[in-house]
Structure formats: C-alpha cells, structure tokens
Design goal:
8-stranded mixed sheet; 8 strands; alpha/beta; single chain
Length: about 200
C-alpha cells in the first residue's frame, strides 16, 4: 500500500501560494509569486533528489498539474527531474479535465465524486509513495480525511503576510499533531522538515 507524501514550499507564516513563478497563481491579487526561487541551492536540490529516487506515483490537483505540464515536457537541459517527472505515472484530480491528457503517463481521477475514496483506492493499488506537489485544495481535502502520511515542508525564512496557506482552520485541517522525523537546513536558510502525520 502506498503512503501519501505531501511536499510543499512554505513561508514562515504558512503561505504556499505561487512559490515558483511571478505568474504562477495570482488569485486574490497575490503580489509575491516566485518567492521561493531565490532560496534554491545545491543542498535543497540534493535533498529533493533523494525523494525523486524512490518508487511511486505522483498526484496533483488540476491547477498544479496544468502548471507543471506546461513546463516539464518541454525541458531539454538535462535536469535530472525532467526524466523522472515525464516517466512517472501521474494522477490528476479534476472535474474539468478529460483524457487523453497532454503530459505522458497522466490519468484523470474524477473530482466530481468522493475524492478521498478515490485516493484511498489509489493508495491500495500503489506500491511506494504517492507524492503530492503543491495542490493545496487537494492536500487539505486529504488531510481532513486523515489520508496524509508524511509532510516534507520546505520552510523558507520569509514572511509574506498574505496568500493561500497550506493549513486553513476553516476547512477542518486547523488542528493536528505531527511528529518530526528529519530535518536539513540549506545554505540559504530553508529548513526542510519531514513530519509524520
């Protein structure tokens, strides 16, 4: 049975919105897109590569899937993530996307029904990790259903003051206890903390 592993970049105040690009997710007039990019370094790359080396599949919400699908299939720079992301089986929870999807090895999980039940079934069919990048709404749905096994949080040393947060009290994910099982600090001050739920 697979374990669900959530991998998120967060600010110190818990914001996860648009870490990668200025135009990534401007919802709500968010002005800080691309905030995580200056903090990338070799230590972070090596830590993230360890996770990419484990067997398993990836799971996304529609918005994150579309952003990644627009970028990674076009990469030809030899980035080690490119081959892994293109080859791995990807599942996307969506009520609007239909197959065939543009990114190779991608399958739709209907977002119209019981998403937690569909992901629970995927978990029983999968060996290895089910890794989720971004996909805040999906993560909150799965956390509320008790389906997240592990969080790998890249906690950046900045406060954004505004933006969508990973943990929102209003959606039922406001209380929980986690157990720290590992941590690494990068040269730019990012703490990569691994928690078991």
């Amino acid at each position: 049975m697979g374990e669900i592993v959530v991998i998120e970049s967060l600010s110190l105040d818990g914001v996860m919105q648009a870490p990668g690009r200025a135009d990534e997710d401007p919802r709500g007039g968010f002005p800080h897109g691309g905030w995580a990019t200056p903090y990338a370094d070799g230590i972070m790359g090596a830590e993230m590569a360890k996770g990419m080396g484990r067997p398993g599949v990836m799971l996304f919400g529609r918005r994150t899937y579309e952003a990644l699908a627009a970028h990674w299939p076009k990469q030809t720079d030899g980035n080690p993530y490119t081959e892994k992301l293109n080859k791995v089986q990807k599942y996307v929870v969506s009520s609007t996307l239909t197959e065939p999807l543009p990114w190779v090895n991608s399958t739709v999980i209907s977002g119209d029904g019981d998403v937690a039940a569909a992901v629970r079934a995927l978990r029983h069919e999968t060996d290895g990790d089910i890794a989720i990048l971004g996909s805040g709404q999906l993560v909150r749905t799965l956390a509320a259903a008790g389906l997240v096994d592990r969080y790998v949080l890249l906690i950046h040393p900045l406060v954004l003051g505004t933006g969508l947060r990973l943990f929102e009290a209003a959606d039922g994910t406001g209380f929980g206890t986690l157990r720290l099982v590992g941590s690494v600090t990068t040269g730019t001050g990012v703490i990569i903390a691994t928690y078991e739920a």
